[in-house]
Amino acid sequence: MTLRNIIAKLAAQENLNFWLTNLLIPRRLATRFMGWFSEIEHPFIRDFSIAIWRFFSDLDLSEAKKTHFKSLHDCFIRELKEGARPFDRDEAVVVSPCDAIVGANGAIDGIELMQIKGFSYTLHDLLVDKNIVDLYRGGRYVTLRLTSSMYHRFHAPHDCRAERVTYISGDAWNVNPAALKRIEKLFCKNERAIIQTRLLSSKAPITLVPVAAILVASIRLNFLDMPLDASYRGLDVFNCDVLFAKGDEMGWFQHGSTIIIFAPDDFTLCDNVREGNIIRAGERLMRIPTPTD
Fold first, then answer.
1. Mean pLDDT, rounded, for 24-30
2. One-character DSSP codes across 193-232
3. Which end of the chain is more exposed for a tag (fewer CB within 10 A), N or C?
4. CA distance linking residue 228 with residue 207, whole number of Å
5. Given this model, what pLDDT does residue 6 score?
6. Position with higher pLDDT, 165 vs 229
7. pLDDT score recorded for residue 64
8. How sure is the predictor about 25, in pLDDT bands with cuts at 50, 70 and 90?
9. Residues whose CB is less than 8 angstroms from the CB of residue 70 and which lie 6 or more positions away in sequence, other chains included
10. What per-residue confidence (pLDDT) applies to 4?
11. What are the angstrom distances between the C-alpha of 61 and each of 43, 64, 69, 85, 249?
12. CA distance 199 to 136
């Protein structure tokens, strides 16, 4: 058995995985360190770091727009070649904003939804604002988990207008299945951004909630002039009025994490949205109701 296989087998042990990535190291300190380390542009550090990353993951750089990176961070937030992610142009469909593994999804039971089987949380726990909670009472949601090796940028799921961003500081728990099974209301503990948008066609509200995690030093939104990161404390609200066409880039994670997307109760999930499925940015996610619906 190779060293890689031995390490992969150890990493698959959930108790060990949880202990190593959540309890052994100080989460916020590790996140700040990774944010600093990943931006070092020394050729040896850059090349060695990317090589280690590729050794321990399924990192595929064949779709990257460029082949040379200034730093590990530059590789993390890489852009893709033109056309690498075609976006479904059906106007009746909301698409996935990112590459991800589909997590918990479906209809919201009043204001209660699932983190993972056996663990629930409420819209109020996550979104805080009662006005936003009321928009999605009994609505639809999809949890999209980005792994560290995936493409980290996220895009507009439809032609829409971004109206407000609420940033909530918090912890930096790992968001992998091992942690989701052990930490109640995990998404509600971690730092996150609540991006409120409205579809241009139907005026329906669609909200994206990028949730940060360990080693995710910040969430960057193209339409705000500052990163949302661990240096903030508490809650900040940014009012905005920004138009996006479906597929326009909205921002990126510094590493890998989760986006939860919310829609009203008359939306339906597409057939490909099943827990455990891999979905790519631009693939269909939800169907918008027609007037006859």
1. 60
2. EEEEEEETTT--EEEEEEE--TT--EEEETTSSS-EETT-
3. N
4. 17
5. 41
6. 165
7. 94
8. low
9. 41, 46
10. 52
11. 18, 5, 11, 14, 19
12. 15
Q: Stretch 172-189: mean pLDDT, rounded?
A: 85
How large is the average pLDDT for residues 207-223?
A: 82
107-120 burial string, b = 16+ CB within 10 Å, else e? Answer: ebeebebbbbeeee
55 token code pair? 């050794």
Q: Which residues are CB-neighbours of 221 under 8 A, at least 6 positions away?
A: 165, 193, 195, 228, 250, 251
Does 220 score more than 60 pLDDT? yes
Contacts 24+ apart (CB under 8 A), 17-21: 17/176, 17/178, 18/174, 18/178, 18/179, 18/182, 21/174, 21/176, 21/178, 21/179, 21/214
pLDDT attached to residue 179: 82
Beta bridge partners of 101: 145, 278
Is 259:98 a contact under the CB 8 Å cutoff? Answer: yes
The span from the CA of 114 to the CA of 105, in Å, is 7
pTM: 0.87
Amino acid letter, 124 = H
CA 113 to chain centroid, in Å, comes to 17
Per-residue pLDDT band at 117 (split at 50, 70, 90): confident
CB burial readout 1-18, b (16+ within 10 A) else e: eeeeeeeeeeeeeeeebb
CA gyration radius, the chain: 19
User: Token match 């996006």: residue?
Assistant: 244
**Ordered DSSP codes for 50-114:** HHHHHHHS----TTBS-S--SSHHHHHT--B-TTSSPPP--TTEEE-SS-EEEEEEEE-BTTEEE
> What is the spatial distance between Cα 153 and Cα 147, in angstroms, rounded to a whole number?
12
Q: How many Cβ atoms are within 10 Å of 203's Cβ, its own excluded?
A: 9
